[in-house]
Amino acid sequence: MEKALLQAETENKNLKALLETRTAELKEAQTYLSKVDDVTDSEVVRLVDRINSLIFQTAAKIADDFLRFYGARDDSALAEAAAGRLEKSTLVGTQLLQALRTEDHSEDPILVQIALQVVMSTFLYHLASPWFTSFDKQTAFVHSIYAEMCKHEPQSVFGRWRAMTLTHMRPLIPDQYNGASMARSRLAEHIGDVLLACGTHPSPDQARAMVTEGYGKGLKQIVTHVLDLRRIAGERVVSRDLQVVVAWPAGPFAAETMEDEWANPKHRDGANQSSGPVLCTTRLGLIKLERKTETGKGTEGDSMRRVVLLKPKVMLESTLKGLLAESRGDGSTEGRTAGR
Predict the structure, then answer these.
(1) pLDDT tens-digit readout, 296-326
(2) Could you tell me if 207 and 85 are in contact, meaning their C-beta atoms sit under 8 angstroms apart?
């Protein structure tokens, strides 16, 4: 009897230990599979709107502040070198860059403002990606693993994996690559090149120094907001993927995914009023991607549902032609103030 009682107590202890182990495992699984997010789509849209507003204000101020310097220095070699750097960066399309180099901006700096908006928006589009690789090449390999997981796993699994991986990767990357200072410096260089391409200052170092000194605080604020957005998209969202988007030069205009910022306000809500190739993106957009599956288990045949939360705003090639014609006195002024 005593032996049987001892055996029963031992079995009870083992059962309790097993139950505790299984309970802990279940809690861990629930944590990993949970799709509860602590940020809403509307909050992220407001953040992107804030970034767009700051980009517009900063670009307009810089363009106006340098009004008296455009074309002041006739050093085509420096201007061409700056234009070459911008072209190599792929932040500005060829047509806009050509107009920036050849037109007189001393009366109206609208093209300079547009170019600044484009450079800032496109640079920040890259910076906003959770998989931004300019400063950390290892991230590209991790991203390739994530892309493969998205083909085969449910949203809860690959979303949680992304959030956990990026959270724990961050402390391993040197601070200078995670912080706003380096990104601000890179952005100031590109802005300086836009000004140099207009013939404003004698050297890249001086242009960058003037931009940093005069607008560094504002640029850092913008970059900080973008880094916050990147962390939200990468580490705080599980149930869906959030991506900042732009429209690329020479691509066709599509009203369902983008907005013509320079469309005539009288026609903006009408059908097929804007058409033709895109020149550039002046304001960032935002999309949401979710696994579209009925079973809850990711399979290679499942697709990702794409929802446009905020359309990027674009300028069309035809609008640039109209602005150039207007500046030469042979075009209509209809819709001229749409982008100001």
Answers:
(1) 454 455 578 899 999 999 999 999 999 998 8
(2) no
